[in-house]
Amino acid sequence: MKTEFNPLQHALSRRTFLADMGMGFTGLALGAMLQRDGFASTAWAPPTGQPHFPPKAKNVIWLFMNGGVSHMESFDPKPMITKYGGKTIAETPFADTQDPKKLALERLVVPDVNGNQRNTLYPMQVGFKKHGQSGIEVSDWFPHIARNVDRLAVVRSMWTTDSNHGAQTQFHSGRHQNDGQFPTLGAWVHYGLGSLNDNLPQFISIGTRPNWNKRDGHYLGPAHDSVPLRIDPDNPLDFGKPEPRFAGDAQSLGMDLVQQLNALRGVEYPQDPAMAARVASYELAFRMQRSVPEVLDFSKETAQTKALYGIDRPHCRDFATQLLAARRLVERGVRFIQIQHGGGSNGAWDAHAGLKTNHTNNALAVDQPIGALLEDLEQRGLLDETLVIFASEFGRTPGSQGGDGRDHHIFGFSVWMAGGGLKRGVVHGATDEIGFHAVENRHYVTDIHATILHQLGLNSRQLEIPGRKRLAIDHGSPITEIIA
Question: Residue 26: what pLDDT?
């Protein structure tokens, strides 16, 4: 009987090797380098690390707002819900547009999350203004992002299917929480392209991870998990420094001696890839002990730059340091940086009640740092090669919940992207008059994945491995209308 190829089985030797070294998260950064240099298992040949076609972007900064940002109070204004606020949908001119019998099946007209109907329209809780030469409307809660609106490609026609917060996993991986173990987008990028800088991890996660999304590599193997990073130069990552304290000269002397001994053994056993891999891994760990704290040392950043990000402002200091670190990581060749805001539990943006207070406070925490990131990347010539994505697992209902909140909403919501060869100052897609359904140029969440991969020069179908064929919807389709 023919045995199906099992990539996990072929990954065990590498996984065991990394675990035996006791290197913790440092070891996770080794996968691409070891595969590229031919030290990993030869039973399965991974991608070469080269793009499939000429890329327009080199790096990704993935900003994910956990909990569900209201599209109607951020990037998709709907004055009709204010005009008819307090009325049920049946009492408005839009009743027919919400009738399931008159709508195409793919528009998924069903009751809202958990079977609840949220039919009483809830007025917008913030004003909107047009900004920039493009005249794109942005919520008053996001003035710093609005200042950069001519750099954005806003997609107002997203949809998804998971109406609980498992949609966070769905947005990161394209698969439902209960579908099993599937790699996230960052893992696929790491798997396909590998390293730009062997001194640093190539896939980094910053901020609290959602409870349902603690791993990235899954069947690609732990080498493609993200490396969790703390914005603390004294303790940036677990097991990232030796337990005993050594002076730099003493550590270098020790490494030189080890290299000499390894070279002698290499002469004696020139065909020993395991030994070569062990040497490479320890050398990378040594380099990371120096390179990671240097990235997180902001002492050489100007006071003007720190003020731009808002590091001096308590309400946004934490996110500001994370985004300044992201810019410094991109400068040094880190490929994929995912930054979670409000992770853990259901997510900070989950505004079932008190939406105005919730979104006001969360926007204050992220708006200035994000605006600064876009401007800082631009002035350093990095935005053209760096994709910045602002996303959330779903939107929120046009109808009210509990009087002053909004429920989860999967049928239409917004994300935006910037840089990396995308058009600037454009809006793509639309929801209906009350923000209920995506009705124009609808895009499932994996279309965002496909767009990012396309800009990085990757064809997701060429990344597939035997025995792990994916559904067509898993691959998505690039949003060509926003590609320059």
Answer: 46
What CATH number does domain 59-231+296-482 carry, 1.20.1740, 1.10.150, 3.10.450, 3.40.720?
3.40.720
- pLDDT of 233 reads 80
Predicted confidence at residue 186, as pLDDT, reads 93
This prediction has a pTM of: 0.83
Q: Note whether 302 and 210 are within 8 A (CB).
A: no
Taking CA atoms, 67 is separated from 283, 308, 351, 359, 447, in Å, by 40, 27, 8, 11, 21
Per-residue b or e along 400-422, where b marks 16 or more CB atoms closer than 10 Å to that residue's CB: bbeebbbbbbbbbbbbbbbbbbb
CA angle 175/195/242 to nearest 5° reads 100
In the chain, where does the domain assigned CATH 3.40.720 lie? 59-231+296-482
Positions of the chain with pLDDT lower than 70, given as ranges: 1-45, 98-117, 178-180, 211-214, 238-286
Cα-based distances in Å from 150 to 260, 374, 426: 55, 11, 8
What DSSP state is assigned to residue 118?
-
- Within 13 A of 39's CA, how many CA atoms are on the CB side? 21
- Whole-number pLDDT of residue 262: 59
Q: CA-to-CA distance for 407 and 157, rounded, in angstroms?
A: 18
> How much helix, strand and coil, in percent to the nearest 5, is found in the chain?
40, 15, 45
**Cα–Cα distance for residue pair 135/286, rounded to 1 Å:** 50
Predicted pLDDT of residue 146: 98
- What is the rounded distance in angstroms from the CA atom of residue 76 to the CA atom of residue 373? 22
The DSSP string of 323-374 is HHHHHHHHHTT--EEEEEES-STT-TT--SS-HHHHHHHHHHHHHHHHHHHH
pLDDT given at position 180: 66
The pLDDT of residue 218 is 83
Q: Greatest CA separation found in the chain?
A: 85
Measured distance CA(268)–CA(270) in Å, rounded: 6
